[in-house]
């Protein structure tokens, strides 16, 4: 199926690793020009520029598309505006936005600090809002259509028992934001949808899964963890005109964990 993404400009926040990286590849495989957002902390302790550059090289070699690594802290309004301006200057106006960047503190609720709670919401919720608002402003000003795909989680509906209340609550907020923005933008040609992934075999989770695969696989009705590429395929569909009759939806891609 041709998703009609050829030469469209897509921006993926948190695109340098994990699910974000798979999404970048999924969009590039359909011919989209991809901007790979990455995080660089102000103190220099975290700098994912190298990883983002590797992803860009992979996209250009494997899929023959133009790609760009662009830094931004999505919780910073100034960074987000600068990110969009940089992408537009190099690749062209953004038509597809995937809000994937996330922060997940793992701390029991009784012990989590206000600072950590606020950081989860600053990245996950405020970041999604700021990037979406910037795209909406630019699309409306240019009278162009566009698509936004937000990454939520099955935990937004089911919760968890491992000290992730801040993450789970923020992902629930993303679902509500998706519905509200979709309703507001429906008649303006801007579709807004979300996906709710389940457990995936990513670099971060791999050591734990490899140590006890049966434990993790037993949590999913289909008997195995998902692959980032499987979620990325759904994201690519929602980012395309093939999903032209969808807006405000949150698509369950959880291997049966959610069944919603």
Descriptors for this entry?
260 residues, alpha/beta, Rossmann fold, 7 strands
Verbal overview:
The protein is α/β, with parallel strands linked by helices and 260 residues long. It has one domain (9-253): NAD(P)-binding Rossmann-like Domain (Rossmann fold). The protein is built from nine helices and seven strands, in the order E-H-E-H-E-H-E-H-E-H-H-E-H-H-H-E. The chain has a seven-stranded parallel sheet with strand order 3-2-1-4-5-6-7, with helices on both faces.
Give a short overview.
The protein is an alpha/beta fold and 260 residues long. 45% of the residues lie in helices and 14% in strands.
CATH architecture assignment name:
3-Layer(aba) Sandwich
- Low-pLDDT stretches are none
Report strand order across the widest sheet: 3-2-1-4-5-6-7
Report the sheet with the most strands, covering strand number, pairing sense and barrel closure.
7 strands, parallel
* Average pLDDT reading: 95
Walk me through the topology:
Elements: E1 9-12, H1 18-29, E2 33-38, H2 49-63, E3 67-71, H3 77-90, E4 96-99, H4 114-142, E5 146-151, H5 155-158, H6 165-185, E6 190-197, H7 206-211, H8 213-217, H9 228-238, E7 250-253
Parallel strand pairs: 1-2, 1-4, 2-3, 4-5, 5-6, 6-7
